[in-house]
Specification:
This protein is 34% helix and 22% strand. With 257 residues, it is α+β, with helices and mostly antiparallel strands. It has a domain of 153 residues: Peroxisomal Thiolase, Chain A, domain 1, CATH 3.40.47.10. Strand 5, helix 5 and strand 6 form a beta-alpha-beta unit. Pfam families: Chal_sti_synt_N (PF00195).
């Protein structure tokens, strides 16, 4: 986890400490209202289990989620109906959808961030790319850099399958890069879609309903660098501290396969 300090007024920046210089975000075009999610999900997965439906309804009501953006659509399910069937092999189909979707969102979020930053694209020296929604080689970092038109010399780091800690892991890596490479400017981009884990409800996996009730799709981007240039860059936060700590014998608490 990392600690952020918001830049207030004309507070002096600690020399050499990494700062967040700009923020950007992007979402898929399909907006889902929480109140309609349960009926839509059970219809799309051809499930009529009243107990599971009641459980998901309760979960949705106890969250603070009102809306979420998703890549999944009726068109995708018509093209890949096997995604809604228990037990069918669908890894290739999911990756065909997810790889393209996360790249598109990451590019859009990064362009928004770079525009707010106000410096030329060529001033980006490093890319840190984070995702748990794709798997390919070369990785999404290359497709993001290519989509933005970054120099082939731009140094790239990919963090795959870090789950919910991916964003802070990216911040930690970007902070290290920014503080140990004078003059560097790091583009940190994260992009996720729930299609990678979309499946019909099952009594054997009641915990899956929590993800259905909570998660949506989207991308975020930051420009991170130390010693911001006065009158050109406008730091938003200072990355004060970054630490990582693993609790012993907890590797099975969240188990993804």
């Amino acid at each position: 986890m990392g600690r952020l300090e918001k830049m207030e007024g004309k507070k002096e920046i600690n020399s050499g400490n990494a700062t967040i210089l700009a923020l950007g975000k992007a979402f898929p075009h399909q907006l889902v209202m929480q109140e309609f999610l349960v009926d839509g999900y059970f219809k799309n997965t051809n499930c009529d289990d009243p107990e599971l439906k009641q459980r998901l309804t309760r979960l949705c009501k106890t969250t603070t989620v009102k809306t979420r953006y998703v890549v999944m659509s009726e068109e995708i399910l018509k093209k890949y109906p096997e995604l809604a069937v228990e037990g069918l092999p669908t890894v290739k189909q999911r990756l065909d959808i997810c790889n393209a979707a996360v790249t598109e969102m990451a590019i859009e979020a990064s362009k928004s961030c770079i525009n707010k930053w106000g410096r030329p694209l060529s001033d980006i020296t490093h890319v840190v790319y984070v995702s748990s929604s794709e798997a390919r080689l070369p990785g999404g970092d290359l497709y993001l850099a290519k989509g933005l038109g970054l120099s082939p010399d731009t140094k790239r780091v990919t963090l795959y399958f870090a789950g919910c800690s991916g964003g802070v892991a990216g911040l930690r890596v970007a902070k290290d890069i920014a503080e140990n490479n004078p003059g560097s400017r790091v583009l940190l981009a994260t992009s996720e879609t729930t299609i990678i884990g979309f499946k019909p409800p099952s009594v054997d996996r009641p915990y899956d309903l929590v993800g259905v009730a909570l998660f949506g799709d989207g991308a975020g981007a930051m420009i991170i660098g130390s010693n911001p240039i006065r009158d050109i860059e406008r730091p938003l936060f200072e990355l004060h501290t970054a630490i990582q700590h693993f609790l012993p014998d907890t590797e099975k608490i969240i188990d993804g396969r």
